[in-house]
Amino acid sequence: MAATGESAFAAAAQTMYDATTDPRRRIALVPGSLHGTSLLTITAAGTVEATKAVTDFLTQVAS
Questions:
Q1: Torsion angle, CA of 37/31/47/10, rounded to 10 degrees?
Q2: CA angle, residues 18, 24, 27, in degrees to nearest 5
Q3: Per-residue confidence (pLDDT) for residue 33, from 0 to 100
Q4: Hey, CA dihedral for 25, 9, 50, 40, is it positive or negative?
Q5: Bridge partners, 29 (sequence order)
Q6: Contacts of 50 by beta carbon, 8 Å cutoff, 6+ apart
Q7: pTM: predicted TM-score of the whole model, two decimal places
Q8: Secondary structure of the chain: what % helix, strand, coil (to 5)?
Q9: CA of 14: how far to CAs of 10, 41, 46, in Å?
């Protein structure tokens, strides 16, 4: 997961995603410019999308 406003991290996330062939892979590029846990803990652009991406992933792997 990366915020699109942090272009280097978003590009790195996309590169890693593209290099991985595992069908369970996921990528979440969310709006905003927050980084790390701030994507989940600070109310700003991308927080809702980041929280949904993490929740969806955890729900999937817990099943």
A1: -20
A2: 50
A3: 93
A4: positive
A5: 2
A6: 1, 3, 28, 30, 34, 39, 40
A7: 0.80
A8: 50, 5, 40
A9: 6, 23, 17
What one-letter code names the amino acid at 3?
A
Q: Which of 54, 60, 29, 28 is nearest to 41 (CA)?
A: 54
Rounded to whole angstroms, the Cα distance separating 8 from 4 reads 9
Question: DSSP E strands: which ranges in the chain?
Answer: 2-3, 29-30
Q: Residue written as tokens 């927080």?
A: 47
CA distance 46 to 4: 9
Q: What is the mean pLDDT of the chain?
A: 92
Following DSSP, what letter does each residue of 1-63 receive, concatenated?
A: -EETTSHHHHHHHHHHHHH---TT----EESS---TTHHHHS-STTHHHHHHHHHHHHHHHH-
Which residue's structure tokens are 């410019």? 33
Q: Token match 């969806």: residue? A: 56
